[in-house]
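hey so i finally got around to running the thing on that chain from the lab meeting. sorry it took forever, my laptop kept dying and i had to restart like 3 times. anyway pasting the input first so we r on the same page abt which one it is
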Amino acid sequence: MGYKIHITTYGECWDEIAKKYYGNEKLMHLLLKANPEYKNFERLPANIKIKIPILQEPLINEELPIWKR
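ok and heres what got predicted. didnt touch it at all, straight out
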């Protein structure tokens, strides 16, 4: 799995970064898993290099009804 690098700005949150890169703030667990050294930060300091895992396959099954996705 490859990674992109995101350089934080002061006060960014994991869910904001997940929303920016994945379109879904609930995928922040992927960021936390890739950056365990920063997992205890609720709001991140500035200028930290965060690894953003590049997803190889979609996480949503488009064949399922909306209420089951």
